[in-house]
Amino acid sequence: MQTELASAEWLSNYRRNLERILKGKRLLDPAGFKDIEFLPEPFAVFQYYRYGHRHPIVAERTKHHALVLDFGGGTFDVCIIETTKEGDISQSGRNSRPLAASSAPIGGFFINRMVAEELFRKYVVPKHESAKFKKGLDVYNSWRKNQVDLATVSDEYRNFIENFHCSIYAIENPKITICNSVTDWSLDTPHSLSVPVVLPKHPFLADDQAVNLQLQATELRDIFANKVWKQRLVPVIGHALQRGKEELNGAPISVVLLSGGSANMRWLGELLQRDFSQDLTHAEVLRIPNFQEVVAKGLAIECARRFYNQDGDFASVTYNRLCLILDADSSGQEVRSFKPRTTGLPSVADLPGVLLPSASVLKNFMDRPMKWRVRLDRPPRRQLEYYFLRSSFNPNDIQNLQNVEEHTVYTPKGTAFDQHLQVQLIVKPDGTSVPRFVYKTGKSEEEETAIAGKPFYLDMTYNVAGSGAAAYIGVDFGTSNSSVSFVDASSVEIYRTRSEEASWVELSDLVAILPYPLAAPLASYLGQSDQSGLVTHAMGFVEAALAMAAYVAYLDYCLHKGRGETHIFKGFTQRSAGPLWAFLKECLTQSGKRAAISAPYAELMAPELHKPIDDVVTFFAQWKHGKTSDSSIDSLRPVQILANISQKVFAENSFGFFEHVRKQRFALEYAGLFRYASGSPPFIRVLDYHGAEAFSEDEPFLFNEESGTALSLQPLLFWDRCINHPDVGTHCFVFDKPEKQEGSFSFKAVSFPCVLQVSLANEYSALAQRLMQLLQRDPPLQLTNVKAAEASGLPTQQEV
């Protein structure tokens, strides 16, 4: 359990009552909970980073002085913890307590209040009422501290207190929406992102008139930096660091760990590095996908370590969104949370304004209603405006508005309303979708009061979800939210064994730097906990790595083959481990010492590396046909070999693509960007490009910065949008095999189950013709000399 800083008497009562409530409860075991332990929250944070997220810096066996910042809904807590020489937290003595703790009642609610104050000043309160507004804030503060009774306050200020208090809560969903959408948290990056906010038009009156505003991401950043960080958080952190110097005898902080839902405003980490650079000279601020449930997961891990005496781990999921904004009777566009009513739909309770995350499988819902429940401030007695948006929360964003033709339904006179509005979607196989809004439910659909909207085309997304049995529970009772985490005993066993392998930490480093076609399957492999899943995803990575190796080695061979006619590609049958391994060995043999880009792959021919790869390729062939068991192969060793050898290739030859390349006005040259496609999307690292060559965004390249040359990977790989996943952006499609029909070929998408057909008869005919030529003979190729095309060479890197 998490416990906040409080008096010993309060903590004693708190723990005793929780034990009384939970003892014997039959949630998982018929016998009920047997052991209930209260653990220090900072240790839970550390345990999650070390054994749950398994960040390489914290997972290594070395002593740490960790600065822990827990930024929740109502409090901001800072402390420093010291580990043992092995990097663990001792359960006795000096290391069993936080060092240099400091706390302040600042959290998500306070951020909302600062945003509300700023928006009131800028858009709601007239200048001539600024003094009145200031007094209203003072009265509100007194009311919040229970120093003022509303019955004793004048009508004007009572109205203000009620309107302002409601506005603070109205800020929450837009704030979360922005934080879930920002990809670049730099302090000086311009943002075009905005989210609607509904505020009272007359804050000192009791009317229901509202003003609809757009909260800009840049506004939120500036308010956070100037009102929250500078004025409130800096003193708390400074106090903890000052005390830490005394506790640690001058030893430096080695790592910074963030926790809590408000830490998802990742400007926190940027500001920390900017303003405390001297105190954190030797420290790195660790970043993870979501800080919301760090404590709960860390508590569950610590339970496993203490009572099961083994380790645990967690996997994570990434989301893109289908959004829905509603406006009842033009009272203001609302960002609301939707609760799924159809079994199987993903939960989006913590994603306000989101109807479907991109991790949703829609194929099981074709031609049948998908239902959600939402509560609005008022029922749509006259009309309901609705905006289905693709990863956007601005109805004026026409480019991402999906129901462009119609976005209003009108309410029949005398309509009765339920407490909640139901949103329904029926999606056809071709993507046509029919929205329907249920105002009053009945025993059957005929008895319902519902209005159907005009059909429109819907973007669709997907994901594969897993499940496991619970063995240990971690509960975090926070100020505004509570989190519960479960740890499965079989997962604990898998990760205990895994944690003993130093190579596993090395693999986690490679996920962020390998090309996307390799990083995605490697991340999936690292996220598995059961043996069958490990083997399945090991095969996925091995085949992906062999495919990239074989295709690069083949194109490298074509660069240096000379004029003689050869037919290596003609003998390649399909993209599976056996044929790929044979194709790669043939290409390396034919290239010999002439290999340049693919030269590091020659190490795979050495006996100590060749045998593990040969063994795992043979194993996969037998395993697919049920001729061998999951446990008869060590999947880690071949994955480690292929990942590290691949990195040697792509460390010098960066995988990516050119984009936005346009001919400059009144000039002969082109300008655009080269985007590095390493790790997972979004790919933010780019180079400016100016040169004489024009490039298509669908063409992947291996770019060598030192030589200034680029090798095109088409027609074996290409980028393109997928009709099933338009929200995702583009898929990277990798050559799979020739089809039986002449001139037809199949490609598979990286990280998605999509298969694309390339043929002489469809829009990909140009690619099909090039593949036909490869089957006829191996063509001579040339590198594109990018550097020579530039007047001043390649500029410095930037991030967007």
Describe the structure.
The protein starts with 7 loop residues before the first helix and ends with a strand. The chain is built from 17 helices and 30 strands. The radius of gyration is 29 Å and the shape is globular. It has 800 residues and is an alpha+beta fold. The strands form seven sheets. It has a seven-stranded antiparallel beta sheet with strand order 29-24-23-20-21-22-30. Strands 9, 11, 14, 15, 16 and 17 form a six-stranded antiparallel beta sheet that branches. It has a five-stranded mixed beta sheet with strand order 3-2-1-6-7, sandwiched between helices. 34% of the residues lie in helices and 21% in strands. The N terminus and C terminus are likely disordered.
Topology readout:
Elements: H1 8-22, H2 41-52, H3 56-59, E1 65-71, E2 76-82, E3 99-104, H4 108-124, H5 130-144, H6 155-181, E4 194-200, E5 210-216, H7 217-247, E6 255-259, H8 267-275, E7 284-285, H9 294-308, E8 321-328, E9 339-340, E10 354-357, E11 370-374, E12 383-390, E13 408-410, E14 421-427, E15 432-440, E16 449-452, E17 456-457, E18 472-477, E19 482-487, H10 489-499, H11 502-510, H12 516-526, H13 531-560, H14 577-591, H15 607-624, H16 636-652, E20 654-663, E21 670-676, E22 685-691, E23 700-704, E24 709-712, E25 717-721, E26 730-738, E27 744-749, E28 755-759, H17 765-776, E29 784-785, E30 798-799
Parallel strand pairs: 1-6, 6-7
Antiparallel strand pairs: 1-2, 2-3, 4-5, 8-10, 8-12, 9-11, 11-14, 12-13, 14-15, 15-16, 15-17, 18-19, 20-21, 20-23, 21-22, 22-30, 23-24, 24-29, 25-26, 26-27, 27-28
